[in-house]
Design goal:
The protein is α/β, with parallel strands linked by helices and 287 residues long. It is built from 9 helices and 13 strands.
Length: 287
């Protein structure tokens, strides 16, 4: 996919025409398949249809939880297993970064629901006065807190020059129509203070490398870039990451970036000349 300026980004009403020339999809979960509360039935149906025609659907998520935990979450929300083949998460990638601190202690910033990221790892979770690193999976209470609430603890960690592993580069997601902050927002705040951050997930290459390796285990040749399509709602994660990895991307907006009608004016503002751009946009993923 070229990053050269274009006069317009096609707005599609169906992914069908592009699906005919693709063999595998890398589909974002939150914002494309569901909104954190309910599934998007048209998106689930489109993925199921693509699989029925021989395609592979790999759900590529910046969730800080490992894939098995995310699969259970999808079951609870109502995203059918028939709509996807395999899941890769930033939590999967983050575990390899966290394992570098095996036998040591880390400061965990994030809710109890993210604890599966530590499962099976020889890691002790401690307060900011101890520990050799920070593992940030999100906010403790993302319904009420903001990144500003974390400045004191981040300054305390910075005084000890602790590196941070950010298990979810997303800054915000939309949950049931409400925008909530994610781990990426805290990580950006730590960097602004002068802290060092290692990011797992989109738009960084390791999660794409793992996705390509996983596709090859499912079907040799299925990671060929010319036959891959990424679908996502994140301008700086899904679209930018796909561009860096050499994958065509389709932008499906959520409330994170767009609250008005999807049109060329909005697309030109989101994807100015020189920025990574999708090959097309859709109001929602639909066959």
């Amino acid at each position: 996919m070229s990053n050269a300026p274009k006069t317009s980004i096609p707005i599609l009403s169906s992914i069908g025409p592009l699906a005919a020339g693709s063999g595998s999809w890398l589909v974002d979960i939150w914002g494309v398949m569901h909104n954190g509360v309910r599934p998007f039935e048209a998106a689930c149906d489109a993925c199921e249809r693509f699989r029925q025609e021989g395609g592979i659907v790999l759900l590529l998520s910046n969730s800080p939880r490992p894939r098995d935990s995310v699969a259970q979450q999808l079951d609870r929300i109502g995203v059918p297993r028939s709509s996807w083949d395999v899941i890769i998460t930033s939590g999967d990638v983050a575990r390899s970064l966290i394992s570098a601190y095996s036998g040591r202690a880390v400061v965990h910033l994030g809710p109890e629901r993210d604890l599966p990221i530590f499962a099976g790892l020889d890691i002790e979770r401690v307060g900011p006065g101890r520990g050799d690193a920070i593992v940030c999976t999100g906010l403790f209470d993302d319904e009420h807190e903001t990144p500003e609430d974390y400045v004191p603890v981040l300054k305390e960690c910075l005084e000890r020059d602790l590196p941070m592993v950010c298990a979810n580069p997303d800054v915000k997601v939309e949950r049931g129509g409400k925008l909530i902050y994610c781990a990426g927002a805290i990580a950006q705040g730590y960097e602004a203070l002068g802290g060092a951050v290692a990011y797992a997930g989109k738009p960084y290459q390791p999660i794409y490398d793992l996705a390509f390796e996983t596709l090859e285990t499912l079907r040799p040749g299925s990671s060929a870039r010319s036959r891959l399509i990424a679908v996502g709602d994140g301008v700086n994660t899904d679209i930018a990451g796909a561009a860096r990895a050499g994958v065509r991307a389709i932008f499906v907006p959520s409330g994170v970036h767009l609250t008005s009608e999807l049109d060329q004016t909005a697309l030109n503002e989101l994807f100015p000349p020189g920025a990574p751009r999708p090959v097309a946009a859709m109001p929602k993923l639909v066959w």
